[in-house]
Every structure is written in structure tokens, then in C-alpha cells.
Automatic annotation (TrEMBL):
Cofactor descriptive note: Binds 2 calcium ions per subunit. Binds 1 heme b (iron(II)-protoporphyrin IX) group per subunit.
Enzyme class: oxidoreductase
Binding site for substrate: 206
EC number: 1.11.1.7
Protein's UniProt name: Peroxidase
Gene3D superfamilies per record: 1.10.520.10, Peroxidase, domain 2 (1.10.420.10)
Catalytic-site annotation from UniProt: 107
Cofactor: Ca(2+); heme b
Any single Pfam family the record assigns to this protein: peroxidase
Originating organism: Crotalaria pallida (Smooth rattlebox)
């Protein structure tokens, strides 16, 4: 699942700090890849587009949830390239920028649907917005980057590309920066008019304190099975998690004053070397990498689980001790190409959750407020 954690890029949420989901980026991801083109549209659609206002999105063709590939092919043909350029520029100076975007996608889609409600600073009812939830709060990162991308899109195609689609396009580029192949992105989402922190806090984002049963149940309610949950947890391959989220496993597991017995001495020593000065005024809650390649989305996270019994979060450790999840862990550990394929499928599925299309919602001019 997209386990929300406080990471420089990862998914695992805490009660107040709530993570930094995925931190993508690898040398492979820096190779430019061409934006995929669709087949030529039928002549009737070309003729229709000549007579319509180019400041609005192209009509969606039949597809999953009302979404389709090439939604902006005529109304804003450079949209995906604009997103790619801004993200690539930011990644050069801030490698965690890509992971922050992926985390935004999960936090937005998993709560009430992929509608950019997470980005609103205010809702007409005056209620607390999703940003103010303890699951997001001050640690929510990436919104400024979406603002920058949206500003560029507005200059090119005013009020055409939705904020929800901007997040989807940016996530695809983030995955590329993490070393994955380019995917065809479905688009045509529209933006929500409301945002409520209460919805976030109603067990709609998984926490690192949850049991495996609760995680599985929550993901099933969103349409994801155990296998897909494990694969999405592979996002922990990139980024880091702060010591506060696993410190007890190294120093005092469940009030025993001893390490978690499921951890090897080598893993415990590694934790203690990073989480120095624990329990003293000098302690600064530093971050620790989930694996040795924190900027690359690979299967090393799973390989370390199988070969070294290495897990930082206890919720990750559960995956090794349950017959419903262990086979998928082993599969992903054995085949990186398969992991990339399945992770892309899971992310694409996540991006279609409860989308607004057609005349529902709106296309915001700025992602922080409704029109």
C-alpha cells in the first residue's frame, strides 16, 4: 500500500508527521524520453475541435472512469512536456521533488478520489481542509511544485488542464526519474470544490501503527487486494524514514527494553548508528534510507526483506510473516522487471480512484483555491 511515513519520500503515515512518501530519481531517470503520441483522431473530432473554444479540455472518449489517453492533445498539446520540463528542472537541485509528487498522488487519491482536493487552502464551508489534517500538516511537500507547474500550464493553455491531471502527469514523470519506463497517462480529471480534513482522519490513510488486518481491510475498501498493497509498499524503495517511526524496534520493543526479536543484530546495529543520541537532548530524529539506493525505484527494498530480514517499519515486517503477503514479497524480490510492471499498474489504478469527469467539479485556475 502506500504506506505513509515520514520520509523524504515514501509512503507511510504517522499520526501527526505523516510521511514523505516516495523519493524517486536515478541516473536512468535522467535520460530524456519522448512523450507518447496517440493515433490520429477521427476527422469528425478534428472538425469539431475547429469550432470549439480551445480554452477548455477536449471531450473525453469512452475509457476507464471517463478518462482517456491524449485528453489534451488538441486543447493543450504541450501539457505533458511542460510538466516534464518543470519537474526535471526541480529534480536537479532537489531530488526529493519527484518523490514528493508521488506522495501527493497517494494522499489525494486514497482519501476521496483523485480530485486535487488535497491542494485546496480553503473550502467554502469553512471547515478544516485536508492539508490541515495531522496526516498531512507541515510535512506535506510538493504542493509548491504543483503550483509552479500549474502556472506554466495556465500561461500556455488558460483554465484547461486540471490540477488533478497535473498531479497525474507529474507522477508519471517522477516514476521516470526513478528509473521506470514512461507510461501512457489517462487524463480528463476535474477538480473538487471541497476539501475536508475530517475525511482524511476517518481511517482513510494507513498509519505505521496499524495492524496488517487493518491495512488489508482499508486497501480492499479502496479496491486493492493484498498483492497490490504489497506492490504499492514497494514505494519504500525510495526515500527515507525518520527514526521516530522505528526507534522502538532497536532500543525497546514493546516495553521489553530489548530490540525486536525478529530483527537481526546487523539490522539493529545499523538502526542505532543512524539514530544516534536517542533519549538524550542531542537526539535530532534523523532519517534513514529504506535501502541502499534511496533515489532509485528498484526491488532492493524487497530483496533486503527476503535476504537480510531487513525492515524498518513494523508494518513492513508483517509482510514477511503472513501467507497472504509473503509470496508477493518473494516475487518482487526475485524480479525487478516484474516489480516495475506491477508497480506501474498499481499506480495507474490508484490514479483512477473516484475521479470527477465531464461536468462534475471544475478546472481550477490555481490549485490552492476554487474558481
Amino acid at each position: 500500500m502506500f504506506h505513509l511515513i515520514v520520509v523524504h519520500s515514501c509512503l507511510a503515515f504517522t499520526l501527526s508527521d505523516w510521511l514523505n512518501f516516495i523519493g524517486f530519481g536515478g541516473q536512468e531517470g535522467r535520460k530524456p524520453q519522448p512523450v507518447l503520441e496517440d493515433d490520429e483522431p477521427p476527422q469528425w473530432l478534428v472538425d469539431k475541435m475547429k469550432t470549439r473554444n480551445q480554452g477548455t479540455a477536449d471531450p473525453a472518449m469512452p475509457s476507464k472512469g471517463g478518462l482517456r489517453e491524449g485528453f489534451y492533445r488538441h486543447s493543450c498539446p504541450n501539457a505533458e512536456q511542460i510538466v516534464a520540463d518543470v519537474l526535471a528542472k526541480n529534480f536537479k537541485t532537489n531530488p526529493s521533488a519527484a518523490s514528493n509528487v508521488v506522495r501527493l498522488l497517494f494522499h489525494d487519491c486514497f482519501v476521496g478520489g483523485c480530485d486535487a482536493s488535497l491542494l485546496l487552502d480553503y473550502t467554502p464551508s469553512g471547515d478544516r481542509v485536508e492539508k490541515s489534517s495531522n496526516f498531512n500538516g507541515l510535512l506535506l511537500k510538493g504542493a509548491d511544485l504543483i503550483d509552479e507547474i500549474k502556472s506554466k500550464l495556465e500561461q500556455e493553455c488558460p483554465q484547461t488542464v486540471s490540477c488533478a491531471d497535473t498531479i497525474a502527469f507529474a507522477t508519471n514523470e517522477a516514476l521516470i526519474l526513478g528509473g521506470m519506463p514512461r507510461q501512457r497517462v489517462l487524463s480528463g480529471r476535474r477538480d473538487s470544490l471541497v476539501s475536508l480534513a475530517s475525511v482524511v482522519e476517518d481511517n482513510n490513510l494507513p498509519a505505521f501503527t496499524w495492524s496488517l488486518e487493518k491495512m488489508i481491510d482499508t486497501f480492499k475498501k479502496k479496491g486493492f487486494n493484498e498483492e497490490e498493497m504489497v506492490i504499492l509498499l514497494g514505494a519504500h524503495s525510495v526515500g527515507t524514514v525518520h527514526c521516530d517511526f522505528f526507534l522502538g524496534r532497536a532500543y525497546g520493543y514493546r516495553d521489553t527494553k530489548k530490540p525486536d526479536p525478529t530483527l537481526t543484530p546487523e539490522v539493529v546495529d545499523e538502526m542505532k548508528k543512524v539514530c544516534v543520541d536517542a533519549g538524550t537532548p542531542k537526539y535530532r530524529n534523523p532519517p534513514m534510507n529504506f535501502d541502499e539506493t534511496p533515489t532509485v525505484l528498484d526491488n532492493l527494498f524487497f530483496k533486503n526483506m527476503v535476504e537480510k530480514n531487513k525492515t524498518l517499519l513494523e508494518t513492513d515486517a508483517y509482510l514477511l510473516n503472513d501467507a497472504r503477503t509473503l509470496p508477493t514479497v518473494k516475487q518482487m524480490a526475485a524480479d525487478q522487471e516484474l516489480f516495475h510492471k506491477r508497480f506501474a499498474e498499481a499506480i495507474n489504478k490508484l490514479g483512477t480512484l473516484n475521479v470527477l469527469t465531464g461536468k462534475d467539479g471544475e478546472v481550477r485556475k490555481t490549485c490552492r483555491s476554487t474558481n
